Amino acid sequence: MGKHRSYFWFQNRVAVRLIGKIHEQVRDPYKESVRVMDKDWDNLIVLDAARTDLFEETVDMDLFDEYSVVRSLGSTSGQWLERNFSEKTFGDTINVTANPHTSVEVPEQFFELIEVDKESIDNPLYEEGIVGSHPETVCNAARAAHEQHPNKRLIVHLMQPHIPFIATSELVHRRYRGEISQGYGGKKDPLHVYEALADGQLDHETFWQGYKENLQFGFDPALELARDLGGKTVFTADHGNMAGERTWPIPIRLYGHPRSVRTPELVDVPWAELTVGERRDWVDEGAGSQSMLADDEIDDRLRALGYKA
Q1: Sheet strands (E) in 98-230
Q2: What is the tens place of the pLDDT at every residue in 163-222?
């Protein structure tokens, strides 16, 4: 028998090699897309991979002073980071991130870069826990950074609701259980929740409920963080996800966030504003940030999130 190839494996190749290239030629990613550093905020909380409709369905919208939908510069974290931050430096900003793409794309652009490590999160289904990033850990690192530098803007990049769905044990597949040697389609057992959904091993209702729970798991401590930090906080996302919607010009169903694909599900993201207390006076003391991770550590963190086999 030949090697099992999943639908997710197939769609990724078609999407990245064909559809994404066509989309970026026709739908200019820079046209009408928001550049986050040009906006007015004290704290930018990034809920990685939060679709707009998911956000609106999950979160109490009455919490915010203002809400709108904006277009992201990227359909992946790497694109969003590179296009937002690579061309300038921001000596008035600290980036507290659980996303290892920051260490690859823009490690030197900020006053300080704080890379929050992945961890083994207790889970009753798995003896050794789930490898992921706990939102409380990221939020506590942001509190410490603000206490030390109260005159800086803060970017706080949480990995929820990105996979793994650590709030929903039964939706954590083999990528996050220490079985990271196999690439997409290497086994019939799904690599992650999007491969399970794409291959029909998971129904959409169960997937969507897990997606919501994972967003709520990240949003609750993020909201508490915003209230603790004070100032003007914006809750947004770097990109969304496809969950079986069809696209053009090849009308196949897409899952996850294939690079360069410019669909509303992928690049329309929430922009929710909340101001608590007084605004902050930012001080630019020059960019001196750098990644403290070795290349193999970055690769290890990317694998833990499913980006590398």
Answers
A1: 110-115, 119-121, 130-132, 153-158
A2: 988 888 788 776 555 544 344 344 567 778 998 899 888 999 999 999 999 999 999 999
Decide: helix, strand or coil at residue 119: strand
Question: Concatenated DSSP letters for 201-252?
Answer: SS-HHHHHHHHHHHHHHHHHHHHHHHHHH-EEEEEE-S---EEEEE-SSS--
SS3 82: helix
pTM score > 0.90 for this model? yes
Q: β-strands 153-158, 130-132: how paired?
A: unpaired
**Distance between CA atoms of 181 and 166, rounded to whole angstroms?**
21
7-304 folds as Alkaline Phosphatase, subunit A (3.40.720)
Question: Which residues, in sequence order, are CB contacts of 231 under 8 Å at separation 6+?
Answer: 42, 43, 275, 276, 277, 278, 279, 280
d(CA 246, CA 79): 22
Q: What is the domain partition of the chain in residue ranges? A: 7-304
First-to-last C-alpha distance (Å) of the chain: 22
- DSSP for 20-48 reads HHHHHHHS-TTTTB--GGGS--SEEEEET
